[in-house]
TrEMBL record:
<dbReference type="InterPro" id="IPR055378">
    <property type="entry name" value="GH3_C"/>
</dbReference>
<dbReference type="InterPro" id="IPR004993">
    <property type="entry name" value="GH3"/>
</dbReference>
<dbReference type="Pfam" id="PF23572">
    <property type="entry name" value="GH3_C"/>
</dbReference>
<comment type="similarity">
    <text>Belongs to the IAA-amido conjugating enzyme family.</text>
</comment>
<dbReference type="InterPro" id="IPR055377">
    <property type="entry name" value="GH3_M"/>
</dbReference>
<feature type="domain" description="GH3 C-terminal">
    <location>
        <begin position="443"/>
        <end position="557"/>
    </location>
</feature>
<dbReference type="Pfam" id="PF23571">
    <property type="entry name" value="GH3_M"/>
</dbReference>
<dbReference type="GO" id="GO:0005737">
    <property type="term" value="C:cytoplasm"/>
</dbReference>
<protein>
    <submittedName>
        <fullName>Jasmonic acid-amido synthetase JAR1-like isoform X1</fullName>
    </submittedName>
</protein>
<keyword id="KW-0436">Ligase</keyword>
<dbReference type="GO" id="GO:0016881">
    <property type="term" value="F:acid-amino acid ligase activity"/>
</dbReference>
<feature type="domain" description="GH3 middle">
    <location>
        <begin position="350"/>
        <end position="428"/>
    </location>
</feature>
<dbReference type="Pfam" id="PF03321">
    <property type="entry name" value="GH3"/>
</dbReference>
Amino acid sequence: MLQRMEVFDGEKVIEEFEEMTKDAGRVQVETLKKILEENGWAEYLQNLGLNGRTDPQSFKECIPLATHDDFEAYIQRIADGDSSPILTGKPIESMSLSSGTSKGRPKFIPFNDSLFETTMQIFQTSFAFRNKQIPLGNGKALQFVYSSKQFKTKGGLAAGAATTNVYRNPKFKTTMKAIQSQSCSPDEVIFGSDFHQSLYCHLLCGLISRDEIESVFSSFAHSIILPFKTFEQVWEELCTNIRDGVLSSWVTDPSIRAAMSKLLKPDPELADLIYKKCAGLINWYGLIPELFPNAKYIYGIMTGSMEPYLMKLRHYAGHLPLISADYGASEGWIGVNVNPMLPPEMATFAVIPNIGYFEFIPLKANAQDQEQEGAQENKPVGLTEVKIGEEYEIVVTNVAGLYRYRLGDVVKVMGFHNATPELKFVCRSNLLLSINMDKITEKDLQLAVEAARTVLAAEKLELVEFTSHADITSEPGHYVIFWEISGEAKEEVLIECCNRLDKVFQEAGSVSWRKGKATGALELRVVRKGTFHKIMEHYVSLGSAMSQYKTPRAVGSTNTAVFDILCSNVVSSYFSTAF
């Protein structure tokens, strides 16, 4: 599937994808066999008694479902320098770091060339379907991508964000050029030492190449919004840089300054044009197409926890279509968006059957039986055995040493593309918040916030960011929602927002617990402007790349650094009077 030539043939990629997905069951068996032939004598598999067998039945009988905790000791040995076949036949030479927003700290995930190859396969397949709908010319992409610093583990392995491992691979640039996705920014900006300086220079590079920009990209919806929110503050400074041909003195990274000096020449005409464009906008609506008149779409992950950002992104995008990027995680890729013209809220992802071995734990079938049997889990089913309309938790066996790995994502099967399922991301499988018997998921929180933000919208106010916390320091425990909003809201407006949050929470949990005072009134805490930016900077300081940062939607009291940032920036709080 992976095209190795520089001349990209999208039709051939689609043709191969169609053939492969028609026989997805067979391809899955072959993929598992290949993974196990290459890694079957690794210590992890040997200890569990697989003994070189490569068929799905033996694999499932011998190898248990696992989480990162089950692999952590093995991964740590690799990171510490043990080069014996622990998880894979060939030594692992680098580690990816997860974003760290789930547990408050990043975790190591093995990364190898095979995982890089699957990443390029996803990029090529996705581009083939996207380009068939909206063909690009020979222009450039404005890509807000950032590479975090790599460091060496105790054993000398290179470690960095998953995106960093991809961007630093020599084949990455070649592939991007072949699929007409070459960044307008030089490498020095992408690999800069400070993401604020890199972000500013990405904007500057885009403006210098404004007529050549055909697409705008970042990993996540919020990391597309951030540069344009920044643009609102620095647009006049950018115009001055373009007019004078001199980069702002606060950009101090020597490599960035050297690279930008080759691009930045005095251009008063361009500066005046941008100034005029900006001055003519009303509340920055349609900013992106105004700045980049030949842009054809905006591209990035826009599903799941990114959906709350779509309203703001559409504001900046104006008439430009938003196309949701593909479905994967630091542990590996899963599916590709083969229907790119669907709005992000309806996006589905067709599983590519040769990039890993996939199983699905049914979440809703036989729910009554499960309760009677002490909530025992259903057995996982194969890729071609899932049913339309059902929800599942994904289990992945990847090409880099993770076997029957519970990814932690809940998906819904929306249909099939030939014989492979098309999945819609629903939420993370782990509970977000819980007090007593209440169970609140990420999706429940998102629905509650959407219901409450309509009250803000009626006041022409915008919800900038949010997160949550279960406060059990007093009796009864209660839920806390932290909000950052765009302006000053009246007390009665925020009380109404608080009541709406509480009502939706109790619909998701149990109203009886709330009415019976087993859980206390929900609390809404409003924080200062810039609070969530401080949280982002905290995670970036831990090694998380801006390209893969996601705002944590729940913060436990054990995540002291982030919890302290939130609590120290509260300006007002309100308790629900809904019950």
